Amino acid sequence: MRIAIIGYGSLVWDLENLAPHVRGNWQLGAGPAMPVEFSRISPKRKNALVLVIDETLDHRCKTSVMESNRQKVEHAITDLAARERCPADMIGYLTTDGTFHHPMECAARWLEKSDYDAVLWTALPGNFTSELQKPFTHRNGREYLKSLSDLSIGEAWRYIEFAPEVTDTPFRRFLATDPFWQSLDYRETAL
């Protein structure tokens, strides 16, 4: 069985404990176009804004894929959940035999045209609105980033700037022209 793992954020540049369980390199931009945005506040990333799939969004971004070296979907799910530090039920998947969890039409269409038998992705929800009691907008996102401590804003900067270029979200484009964001540079700071 060939299992694809979809990546669009830090997974692409930091496999961590997933590294022993994949083969080959990331196929940048070869995954399904998905509605991703920096609309999750992540305790794992020092409260930085991180990418999640948000099906309420109109835009789609290219994603990347890498092959799991596992033969069973359950094992690949366990691997990805361990990397993402989330419960296994927060991993979405589809198989060509019709098994699914957190199904997405765009992933189903992509799988149908691919040489893979299954595809997995992280299905953590956005939490910006529930955490801050205000909707995720470009301005609200920027104001949130401005409120972070130096350590947290450094993590947020690295996460957003190191995300693959193909992860071209509206918020990322907004930040590319924002004077506050452009004044930051945390390249030399260790992760």
Describe this structure in words.
By secondary structure, the chain is an alpha+beta fold. It has one domain. It has helices spanning 10-13, 73-84, 105-113, 128-132, 138-147, 150-162, 170-176, 179-182, and strands at 3-7, 22-27, 36-42, 48-53, 64-68, 91-95, 100-101, 118-122. The strands form two sheets. A six-stranded mixed beta sheet has the order 2-5-1-8-6-7. A hairpin with a 4-residue loop joins strand 6 (91-95) and strand 7. The radius of gyration is 16 Å and the shape is globular. The N and C termini lie far apart (35 Å).
In short:
The protein is an alpha+beta fold. Helix content is 34%, strand content 21%. The chain has eight helices and eight strands.
Helix percentage range: 25-40%
Order of helices and strands: EHEEEEHEEHEHHHHH
**What about the largest sheet?**
6 strands, mixed
| Model regions low in confidence, pLDDT < 50 over at least 5 residues | none
How do the strands line up in the largest sheet? 2-5-1-8-6-7
Report the structural category: alpha+beta
What is the gyration radius calculated from CA atoms? 16 Å
Shape descriptor reads: globular
Instruction: Assess the beta-strand content as a share of residues.
Output: 15-25%
- The assembly state of the depicted protein chains is single chain
Overall average residue pLDDT:
95
Count of alpha and pi helical runs: 8
Number of strands: 8
Calculate the terminal CA-CA distance, rounded to whole Å: 35 Å
Task: Write down the domain tally.
Answer: 1
